[in-house]
Amino acid sequence: MSCHYVDVLLPVPLDGLFTYSVPPEMEVSAERGRRVLVPFGRNKTHVGIIMKVHADKPRFAVKPVKLVLDDAPIVTDLQLELWRWLSDYYICAPGDVLSAALPGGLKSADSYRPKTETCLALAKEYASERAMHVALDMLGRAEMQRKAFACFLAMSRWDTIEGTATRQQIVEVTRDELLNTAHCTVATLKNLIDRRLLVPYEREVGRLNHGGEPHLDNIKQLNPAQQEAYNQIVFSFLKKNVVLLHGVTSSGKTEIYIHLIRQALERRQQVLYLLPEIALTVQIRQRLQRVFGDRLGIYHSKYSDAERVEIWKKQMSQNPYDVILGARSAVLLPFTKLGLVIIDEEHETSFKQQDPAPRYHARSAAIMLAAKAGAKVLLGSATPCAETWHNARTGKYGYVRLDKRFGDMQMPEITVVDTKDLQHRKMMNGPFSPLLLSSIRRALDNKEQVILFQNRRGFAPMIECRECGWTPRCEACDVSLTYHKALGQLTCHYCGRTYAVPDVCPCCGSRDLRGRGYGTEKVEDKVMELFPDARVARMDLDTTRTRNAYERLISDFSAHRTDILIGTQMVSKGLDFDKVSVVGILNADSMLNYPDFRAYEHAFTMMAQVAGRAGRKGKRGLVILQTKSPELPVIAQVVRNDMEGFYSDLLEERQLFRYPPFYHIINVYLRHKDEPVVCAAADALGTLLRQWFGTRVLGPDKPSVARVKAMNIRKMVVKLELGIDLAKVRLYLNKGKSAVLQDNRYKTVTVYFDVDPL
User: Fold this and answer.
1) In this predicted structure, what is the pLDDT of residue 1?
2) Model pLDDT for residues 329-352, shown as the tens digit of each residue
3) Do residues 452 and 530 lie in contact, with contact meaning Cβ atoms separated by under 8 Å?
4) Of 670, 673, 653, whose CA–CA distance to 662 is shortest?
5) Minimal CA–CA distance to 379: which of 498, 495, 483, 274?
6) What's 326's DSSP letter?
7) CA Rg, the chain, in Å?
8) Nearest to 609 by CA among 277, 293, 125, 197
């Protein structure tokens, strides 16, 4: 009887597959695509996926498989093909792709358990208007407890109680949400629980979407401009596999997507709908659920691991979701009958995975997935990325233009304010120009809403000694620390380390330490000082760490329970609010003055997208764009919404200096704790690469942040002309990496590649 062997893909950063023997009792169940538990090294075990079953006896001793974990494959052949492409194209180990693709519960031999989260409820004896006032009086001297309790009442809607009934439906509040929103300590919360004012309970998370019955009759009829765009897309799909829908903000692209999804479902095909930010899934999910009900599944990293496992298993069942709505990682899910991929806001940098490997771009991965599945791809954006614009204008992609806003609304009026001149005349009030302040007051008087965009979180970007100029820096990273007032600490936004706020300058002994610049937290404080009656909310990484936090912020703003929303780039990403009449871009220069060849493209995109939040329905909006450099051509192009002019200038510059879309770029990074070691390794690798690539190699140099998490970094840039043999390029890059790491002096250096960096 012939012995069986399996080649297994393991979630380890090593190239190739690993061969194991199959015990006789497991031969029937050992099938490609199933998970197995296998030994690895001296005393480790890993869960891997069988890639091949064969009878070819290896020339070396092999260990036996310990256990076959599945009754059926958990991945499709289509997925495995995509994983292989991701590993090849992005120059990383196949195991890195497996680690990124599988939810944690599928990478463990233990059965996963649905997670729970702690929620808080109002104690029954205080569930009346009178009793609630008694509770607040009881907390009169305990200021932090009273503040946290009042915050809970507002979040849960118990503050709408009249007698024993509330005007609004009670909302569940999680323990983490209350800690995050009330800025209170765990001890404060424990006191409220010990005093029996709040009652904790556990709620299971990770439930699958139960969106109810589909109601295709809820699909709205397209207006003439939308219908024309829809017809052009359908016609373009006859000739092109990828089509760009270039639609201005608020033109109704989502409604076109819904009609295309219905058409795909009528053909019994699956649809993948990708969004760049988890925040966007809240509004889009509600719109899609009204139409597609429980045929819609949602998948992103803020969901619990248990839920992601359940969705994965459902996709491999006989009754998978017909439509998957998700962020970047959803492209790695299994699909059995994929027919259409929609990539909304395709220009967004959030689609690019930065760390760890694979450093893939979800747009590129989705286009490749669709090509392998025989599906069509629709890219949607009001501000396409330069590569997509070029591909559409040169005929590689289909191109459809939608240049009318829904309801024939006008594009917002954009007014540029020269803050350098105003600062010189001492007319700025913090980060606000007089025009912006008067516009905010007018909007609030008219019961309209305001969005303020500041692309820096925290209270102040840095603290500075006014005597000697000293600023606190991270001990592990080559960056200054950001002051977070609510947390009362300094934080490194690269490694996450926190530090106490110093009382005196360690260099000169001065006590005059002040925050320099404005983060979203400081802007929020200033807004509440200037507009004490306004209801203010902040949307940034610090306030949206939980899934429910996103939903609460967006639903509150949509329901006009918030007047002014302050945020980072999150507020620029396709959110649709009815009553926003004023948008303030507080500091355009922070985006423009960035050492990167994409800086102007990202700045133009972000400003145009933020501006598009104004005047969404029924009224032309006003955008106040504050900058110290109003003379820059890109500012005028944003004001005129001059896409043609902007992309023409941009592409001419890119071609001149050998940047995408006319050249491929691969960044080569080296990391090590000792700077002399990483410098020597980088020089050695640079010498090797120049032997093969010549002047295509730039560097090695220090990147703008040259030390992160106590690791020193060196960087090289490889610029490759179009049409070059990328397979051979990858071969030489890996050859150079192996040669350097085989040198005992550099064996502890980390070398990795970032293909098509952003």
Assistant:
1) 43
2) 999 999 999 999 999 999 999 999
3) no
4) 653
5) 274
6) E
7) 28
8) 277
d(CA 183, CA 170) in angstroms, rounded, equals 22
d(C-alpha 290, C-alpha 284), whole Å: 10
Residue 124 has phi, psi (to 5 degrees) of -55, -35
- Structure pTM? 0.83
Q: Is the four-CA dihedral 64, 67, 72, 78 of positive or negative sign?
A: negative
Q: Pairing between strand 498-500 and 338-344?
A: unpaired
Q: Which among 275, 339, 326 is positioned nearest to 297, based on CA atoms? A: 326
Record the tokens describing residue 207, joined without a space.
Answer: 């439930």
Q: Which stretch of 100-114, 133-147, 446-460, 581-595 has the lowest confidence by average pLDDT?
A: 100-114
Q: Rounded to whole angstroms, what are the CA distances from 555 to 280, 402, 552?
A: 12, 28, 5
Residue by residue, DSSP assigns 212-254 as -S--GGGPPPPPHHHHHHHHHHHHHTTT-SEEEEEE-TTS-HH
On whether the CB atoms of residues 244 and 647 are closer than 8 A, the answer is no
In the chain, % helix, strand, coil (3-state, to 5) comes to 40, 25, 40
The confidence band for 544, taking pLDDT boundaries of 50, 70 and 90, is confident
- Per the document, the length of the chain is 758
Distance CA 638, CA 110 (A): 54
Bridge partners (DSSP) of residue 713 are 671
Tens of pLDDT, residue by residue over 656-707, are 999 999 999 999 999 999 999 999 999 999 999 999 999 999 999 999 899 9
Say what the pLDDT of residue 753 is: 97
Q: Name the residue type at position 210.
A: H
Q: How many Cβ atoms are within 10 Å of 236's Cβ, its own excluded?
A: 20
pLDDT, mean over the chain: 91
